[in-house]
């Protein structure tokens, strides 16, 4: 909806062609490192493509989320070995030297019950086995990361209290806040 409104090119996380995602949810310990390396590679490629292009884009995930949220959660839960986590972080730290932060980071804050409802509404079979403790860990990591995020502009939206697809007035609030953060009060 934002891409359409602002005439931005959307860049989505490719979940349909991900060779690890389904396996990961079946055996997180076995596939966590492979999945995180895959995401890092794909997101870095996407950043390079965005830089080469001349269009304004919107991404549904940043390269930072895996490094600060997903991989640490997997490691802390014992689902990624320490040597794998250290290798992943070393590679991320190297890649991070060559990227620039987004012009605006939009954080969608949601409670675990809201996340569960959203996952259920997507209806992806492989997501049906996501553990609540994993979601809770991710949410805690997101909050910690957002509290310390200082790479650029950021907006936080409380998703528990928004119904963007169902209430046009909620979408207007979102658009106005994004517009003022990117372009100031007057466009």
What does this structure look like?
By secondary structure, the protein is mainly alpha-helical. The chain has one domain (2-183): Rossmann fold, CATH 3.40.50. The protein is 58% helix and 10% strand. It is built from eight helices and four strands, in the order H-E-H-H-E-H-H-E-H-H-E-H. A two-stranded parallel ribbon has the order 1-2. Strands 3-4 form a two-stranded parallel sheet. Helix 3 packs antiparallel against helix 4. 14% of the residues are buried.
Number of helical segments? 8
The protein's oligomeric status is: single chain
Assign the CATH superfamily: P-loop containing nucleotide triphosphate hydrolases
CATH fold naming: Rossmann fold
What string, H for helix and E for strand, traces the elements in order? Answer: HEHHEHHEHHEH
Structural class: mainly alpha
Total beta strands: 4
Q: Output the strand order for the largest sheet.
A: 1-2
Beta-strand content bin: 5-15%
- Give helix % range: 55-70%
CATH architecture: 3-Layer(aba) Sandwich
Major sheet details: 2 strands, parallel
Radius of gyration equals: 17 Å
């Amino acid at each position: 909806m934002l891409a359409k409104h602002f005439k931005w090119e959307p860049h989505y996380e490719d979940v349909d062609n991900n060779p690890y995602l389904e396996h990961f949810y079946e055996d997180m310990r076995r596939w966590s490192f492979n999945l995180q390396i895959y995401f890092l590679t794909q997101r870095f490629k996407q950043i390079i493509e965005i830089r080469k292009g001349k269009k304004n884009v919107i991404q549904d995930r940043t390269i930072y989320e895996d490094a600060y949220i997903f991989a640490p959660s997997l490691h802390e839960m014992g689902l990624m070995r320490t040597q794998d986590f250290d290798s992943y972080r070393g590679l991320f730290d190297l890649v991070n030297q060559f990227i620039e932060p987004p012009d605006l980071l939009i954080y969608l804050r949601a409670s675990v019950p809201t996340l569960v409802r959203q996952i259920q509404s997507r209806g992806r079979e492989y997501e049906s086995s996501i553990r609540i403790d994993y979601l809770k860990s991710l949410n805690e990591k997101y909050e910690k990361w957002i509290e310390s995020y200082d790479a650029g502009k950021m907006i936080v939206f409380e998703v528990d209290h928004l119904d963007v697809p169902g209430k046009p007035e909620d979408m207007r609030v979102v658009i106005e806040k994004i517009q003022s953060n990117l372009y100031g009060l007057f466009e």
